[in-house]
Specification:
With about 120 residues, this protein is α+β, with helices and mostly antiparallel strands. The chain has three helices and six strands, in the order αββαβαβββ.
Length: about 120
């Protein structure tokens, strides 16, 4: 008989972090990892952030924010807020981002990263 935690871990792969459903392969620190990117969460957080702030980025540069979910077992470690992470498409070195927020829940890591892009 499987425990509740074991069933959730199986569901993480079979349903949520699944290439055929929501998952996509990305490169994190040069390693191929299946992730789920949550653009809706980022848009909601930006909408709720304080308004009226001035843009401190130079012209042509913008702050790129990405929130993704990854199985802890697949990533192999839990990122630390403030550390640099190379994140990008497969076959690329990846862009440097700074880890902004990290949350671990039942074997799934939610990571929000930020980096300047042009």
């Amino acid at each position: 008989m499987t425990t509740f935690k074991q069933q959730v871990e199986q569901d993480n792969l079979a349903v949520f972090i699944n290439f055929d459903e929501f998952g996509e392969e990305k490169s994190i620190r040069g390693r191929k990892v299946l992730v789920v990117i949550d653009n809706d969460l980022i848009n909601e957080r930006q909408r709720l952030s304080t308004s009226g702030t001035t843009n401190t980025n130079p012209e042509g540069v913008y702050l790129s924010t990405v929130t993704f979910f990854v199985r802890q077992r697949d990533l192999g470690y839990v990122p630390v807020e403030g550390e640099q992470m190379l994140f990008g498409d497969l076959g690329e070195r990846g862009y440097p981002y700074i880890v902004d927020k990290v949350a671990v829940n039942m074997g799934v890591i939610e990571v929000t990263i930020e980096g300047n892009q042009s």
